[in-house]
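Tokens in:
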């Protein structure tokens, strides 16, 4: 029997070595929906079905400081004009909180319980109004905290997790509390701290300087991103990965950042601008985009993500990750539906 035992031992050792060196599994991918208005279109339905995931991350509202009322208030609340029948069962409410909130008295550590209670109540009301046939197993907070807000923000997260009414709305289990984590918060976690949550989402984009008129693409720069991911293997939380598939127009006036616009009509843009450099155009005739008025001599830079860039980025992440993770694409909107076909996305992140 000894030879058999020896062979089994070798197989076990080989199996352990294989597991240690195995690539992380990229599971079926999900989407963020970040627009204030959620329109249940056939294109949205089809994209969600093709993703193969049963989860959709939906921005419910933002929290910001209202200077007139000197109070922290919700803004940009999700708007839905019809009854939704989405091809997913799990809805993840996402709340974006501006960093300024935790510098205000209403967002202080002393007021964490009040802020957490108000936030949890609003989530529950919106969920029951729009998604009562779905399940909430997770709520996600998106905040780019800083050294000056870390204490108040982390206290808020701990308090939110303890909320009695923050138990899963339609599932027989407690709700997971997750939060977004920027790349610098991965690399410099000794200084920025690790948030007291169940699981993180590493945002692998927006690595450039949006305010710099000479920036080439603030959304994606894979060489820069790679320098931040060297310590991903050591991150002490379970995490998922958010990859970019969005585009936008960045506007500068007198070389200063003026606006970020999600969509501009192509015909209107062509008629009122001229090419300045490879990735910049210049306004020669003032026009209104529908959300922003642009003046003569304004500089516009369109930033987007190609399938090749996405594939390279996904490869970098897989190389540096030391655990299995879900992939979440930011975000599903008209530009994604029109510019990045499903097969290109799937070939990029597989």
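Residues out:
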């Amino acid at each position: 029997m000894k030879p058999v035992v020896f062979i089994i031992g070798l197989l076990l050792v080989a199996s352990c070595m294989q597991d240690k060196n195995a690539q992380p599994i990229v599971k079926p991918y999900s989407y963020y929906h970040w627009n204030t208005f959620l329109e249940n279109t056939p294109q949205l339905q089809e994209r969600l079905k093709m993703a193969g995931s049963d989860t959709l991350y939906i921005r419910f509202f933002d929290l910001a400081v209202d200077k007139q009322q000197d109070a922290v208030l919700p803004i940009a609340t999700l708007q839905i004009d019809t009854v939704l029948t989405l091809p997913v069962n799990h809805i993840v409410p996402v709340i974006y909180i501006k960093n300024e909130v935790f510098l205000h008295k209403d967002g202080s550590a002393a007021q964490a319980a009040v802020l957490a209670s108000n936030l949890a109540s609003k989530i529950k009301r919106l969920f029951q109004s729009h998604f009562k046939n779905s399940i909430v197993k997770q709520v996600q907070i998106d905040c780019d905290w800083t050294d000056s807000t870390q204490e108040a923000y982390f206290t808020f997260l701990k308090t939110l997790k303890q909320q009695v009414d923050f138990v899963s709305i339609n599932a027989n289990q407690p709700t997971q509390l997750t939060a977004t984590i920027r790349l610098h918060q991965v690399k410099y976690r000794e200084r920025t701290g690790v948030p007291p949550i169940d699981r993180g989402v590493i945002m692998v984009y927006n690595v450039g300087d949006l305010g710099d008129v000479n920036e080439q693409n603030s959304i994606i720069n894979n060489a820069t991103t790679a320098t931040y991911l060297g310590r991903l293997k050591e991150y002490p939380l379970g995490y998922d990965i958010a990859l970019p598939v969005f585009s936008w127009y960045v506007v500068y006036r007198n070389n200063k950042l003026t606006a970020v616009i999600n969509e501009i009509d192509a015909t209107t843009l062509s008629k009122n601008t001229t090419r300045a450099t490879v990735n910049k155009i210049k306004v020669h005739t003032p026009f209104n985009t529908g959300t922003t008025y642009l003046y003569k001599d304004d500089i516009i830079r369109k930033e987007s993500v190609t399938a090749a860039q996405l594939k390279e980025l996904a490869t970098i992440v897989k190389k540096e990750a030391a655990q299995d993770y879900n992939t979440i694409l930011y975000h599903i909107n008209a530009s994604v539906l029109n510019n990045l076909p499903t097969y290109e996305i799937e070939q990029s992140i597989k």
